[in-house]
Write a structure and sequence with these properties.
The complex is a heterodimer.
Chain A (H helix, E strand, L loop, with lengths): L3 E4 L2 E5 L4 E7 L4 E9 L5 E8 L4 E4 L2 E6 L4 E6 L8 E9 L8 E2 L3 E6 L1
Parallel strand pairs in A: 2-11
Antiparallel strand pairs in A: 1-3, 3-8, 4-5, 4-9, 6-7, 7-8, 9-10, 9-11
Chain B lengths: L4 E3 L2 E4 L5 E6 L4 E10 L3 E9 L2 E5 L6 E5 L5 E5 L8 E9 L7 E2 L3 E5 L1
Parallel strand pairs in B: 2-11
Antiparallel strand pairs in B: 1-3, 3-8, 4-5, 4-9, 5-6, 7-8, 9-10, 9-11
Classes of the chains: A mainly beta, B mainly beta.
């Protein structure tokens, strides 16, 4: 069974700092990997989707990389802002599934201090 | 384009009751998935529906069921509620033939007393 781990569980940084969030998964046979953010009591907002054939995706200040062979992905946030404070989750879709079943990590809770 | 809409947003039930949650996907999306989120277990996959057929099912008891209608709207039902069913229930939709990207709704917060 696919297991997804996110380290650290919590992170606190001063505003303006660049930071990296980590995601690792046990089975490299994935179709794609998706990063989300979740604000307290809210649903998940999609940030970036990386297909298994891709190495990275960028959107604004966010850059996500994927190393499928080593079972790792990183989310890089440049010039962090207080509005970036949220929980960040990664999820993988195994190739063994015919549908859209994703396995989620437990998230990294990010606090950006003004 | 409207996002994924879930109703109700909040509800309180007592043990033994049943509950039905509704999800309207993004227009044109035919895949609807349901997830349960709790502080202890995180996000866990319940089931997925595509063209009115259950395509995948997670490891949940038979008390959890769902269905999808011809307009792609989906409902999930939990019967004989237990205290441990208290959770945020999230619905996600995905486009047909797309990259499998998930788009989530705001969730339905269920509290079982």
């Amino acid at each position: 069974k696919q297991e997804v781990t996110q380290i650290p569980a919590a992170l606190s940084v001063p505003e303006g700092e660049n930071l990296v969030l980590n995601c690792s998964f046990t089975d490299s046979a994935i179709y794609n990997l998706q990063w989300f953010r979740q604000d307290p009591g809210k649903g998940l907002t999609s940030l970036l989707l990386i297909q298994s054939s891709q190495r990275e995706q960028t959107s604004g200040r966010l850059n996500a990389s994927l190393d499928k062979s080593s079972g790792r992905s990183t989310l890089y946030i440049a010039a962090s802002q207080p509005g970036d404070s949220a929980t960040y989750l990664c999820a993988v879709r195994p190739t063994s599934n015919t549908g859209n079943q994703f396995y989620f990590g437990t998230g990294t809770s990010l606090t950006v201090i003004p | 384009k409207a996002g994924v809409t879930q109703t109700p947003r909040y509800l309180i039930k007592t043990r033994g009751q049943q509950v039905t949650l509704s999800c309207s996907p993004i227009s044109g999306h035919r895949s609807v998935s349901w997830y349960q989120q709790t502080p202890g277990q995180g996000l866990q996959f319940l089931f997925e529906y595509f063209s009115e057929t259950q395509r995948n099912k997670g490891n949940f008891p038979g008390r959890f069921s769902g269905r999808q209608f011809s307009n792609s709207r989906s409902e999930m039902n939990v019967s004989t509620l237990e205290l441990g069913d208290s959770a945020l229930y999230l619905c996600a939709s995905s486009p047909l033939g797309g990259a499998g990207e998930l788009f989530f709704g705001e969730g339905s917060r269920l509290t079982v007393l």
